[in-house]
Write a structure and sequence with these properties.
This protein is α/β, with parallel strands linked by helices and about 375 residues long. The protein has helices at about 20-30, 40-60, 75-85, 100-110, 125-135, 160-165, 185-190, 240-255, 260-275, 305-310, 330-335, 340-345, 360-380, and strands spanning about 5-10, 65-70, 90-95, 115, 140-145, 170-175, 195-200, 210-215, 280, 295, 315, 350. It is globular.
Length: about 375
């Protein structure tokens, strides 16, 4: 199938690189330099990095001195958790059952007594359970909760989480990787201690992200070496990637107004799904969600078969998180929400972007329905 006839509907996995981002990166790639060098080319690379730091800080409601560049959201999460735990800032890690694997796996590696807060049936962190865990904790804690779930799109009650953390004098880390550039994000207004960001979710390049670290908070290092990023993250900076991240951040925040139209397109698609299939369940639809995200299923279907069928018809979607090396399997998030296996097994995530058209979402509805009918008919015949 020709590339022009394909529809990319998996923006939560990675958004296409914006043309303005590619142009800025190519300009850097065409020049030699290392930001740690003192000659003119090195100073120019340093200038470009610091300019991007200011762009990202301004876009995320932070100070430029608070932005630490990393290789992506996963490293930013790892630096926040490992740096806090290994430095003695906290003795326990409290996180939720619906976090990204980069948080859950690192937390479990660091703290064998990790406290994992359950989610409600509506896909929201259980605040009462969080309160109870913090109340019973023996020693200082680090609370790590995402701003928006990458599968369901459900926006978490971060202000309430921060208030509880402050009540018990716990540190708070917010994984804002999926939220940044889709909803307003302000580190200063959140009152958090740390916040993770990633470039490739907002039209920037893969392989670059940032940890926003509150001024004055000292945490340990994840890796040692040449002392880059004011000694907080060693390694030669990915200057082209950082520059692309800065442009992508400014562009995404400048275009936040476009998200209302994207939410309307998403809602229209879900209405279309219900018109042709009365048994469809849209997860977390009663909660505030990312405007571009829809996660839905019909009882008795198999997501792996549906994803393949849609792909063969030129529609690129996912069965959930794209963080499991291409695996298609049952959603851990839906399991945490108590969704029955027979319904969770068929869950499909559609995540839209600024280039998505109504013609594409209409085609998705029709092709998905046809694929469902074929699958159900085959199961009936068997």
């Amino acid at each position: 199938m020709a590339p022009s006839s394909r529809s990319y509907l998996d923006y939560n996995a990675s958004a296409p690189v914006l043309p303005c981002v590619a142009d800025a990166m190519l300009e850097v790639l065409a020049s030699p330099g290392n930001a740690s060098s003192v000659h003119q080319s090195g100073r120019e690379f340093r200038r470009r990095i610091e300019e991007a730091r200011v762009q990202i800080a301004g876009s995320a409601g932070a100070q430029s001195s608070e932005v630490i560049f990393t290789s992506g959201g996963t490293e930013a999460n790892a630096l926040a958790l490992s740096g806090s735990f290994n430095s003695g800032c906290c003795r326990r890690i409290v996180t939720s059952a619906i976090e990204h694997p980069s948080v859950l796996d690192m937390a479990a590696h660091l703290d064998q007594d990790i406290a994992r807060i359950p989610a409600t049936a509506r896909g929201i962190v259980d605040l009462d359970a969080l309160d109870d865990q913090l109340k019973r904790a023996d020693g200082p804690c680090l609370v790590s909760v995402m701003m928006a779930n990458n599968e369901t799109g459900a926006l978490q009650p971060i202000q309430d989480v921060v208030s509880l953390a402050r009540k018990y004098e716990a540190l708070i880390h917010v994984d804002a990787v999926q939220a940044f550039g889709k909803v307003p994000v302000s580190f200063a207004n959140l009152g958090a201690d740390m916040m993770s960001l990633s470039a490739h979710k907002i039209g920037g390049p893969q392989g670059v992200g940032a940890l926003v670290l509150r001024d004055g908070l000292e945490i340990g290092l994840l890796q040692r070496g040449g002392g880059q990023e004011t000694g907080r993250r060693a390694g030669t900076e990915n200057t082209a990637g950082v520059v692309g991240f800065g442009v992508a951040a400014q562009t995404a925040v400048a275009c936040l107004g476009d998200m209302a139209g994207l939410a309307a397109l998403r809602d229209q698609m879900e209405t279309g799904l219900r018109k042709i299939c009365s048994g469809v369940t849209v997860f977390c639809e009663q909660e505030a969600r990312l405007p571009n995200t829809s996660y839905f299923s019909v009882e008795g279907l198999n997501a792996e078969t549906l994803v393949i069928a849609l792909d063969l018809d030129g529609l690129e979607v996912s069965s959930g998180s794209a963080c499991s090396s291409g695996k298609v399997g049952q959603s851990r998030i839906l399991a945490a929400m108590g969704v029955p296996d027979n319904l969770a097994r068929g869950a499909i995530r559609v995540s839209l972007g600024r280039g998505t058209t109504q013609a594409e979402t209409d085609r998705l509805v029709n092709v998905w329905h046809a694929a469902c009918q074929r699958q159900l008919a085959y199961q009936g015949a068997a």
